[in-house]
Amino acid sequence: MARPVFINTLVFVSDMKRSLAFYCDLLGQTIAQDHGDFVQLENGLALHNGAALEATMFGSPVGERSRYGRGNLMLYFETDELEAMLARMPQETELIHPIETQAWGQKVFRCYDPDGHIVEVGEPM
């Protein structure tokens, strides 16, 4: 029997336009495929309109949600321009903490995306 092949991580979003602005415009990610309610980025991350995905999986949307993130998953990005990336974060971005040096010596900052998913941005190790 062939084993399954991992393709991407799919994140539920409440507002695709807002999420694309965060991941593409702010974090510089590139769209590989855009199917409206489902957008796959070139980095292995996919965004899916949460209500549409809930309807597909459960037959109807689960209910009104303002944020899908639950604080138990982190999306990790690296950049050579960590301070510049932090400076580009809009005022409304909720920071968990500014740039800090971790126990293993890497500098990172953490924030929430528009749906409350944790995003970590670090310098390359």
Automatic annotation (TrEMBL):
Protein name (record): Glyoxalase-like domain protein
The VOC domain, residue ranges: 3-124
InterPro entries for the chain: Glyas_Bleomycin-R_OHBP_Dase, Glyoxalase-like_dom, GlyoxalaseI/FosfomycinResist, VOC_core
Pfam family, one: Glyoxalase_2
Alphabetical list of SUPFAM superfamilies matching this protein: Glyoxalase/Bleomycin resistance protein/Dihydroxybiphenyl dioxygenase
Coiled coil: none
Signal peptide from the UniProt entry: none
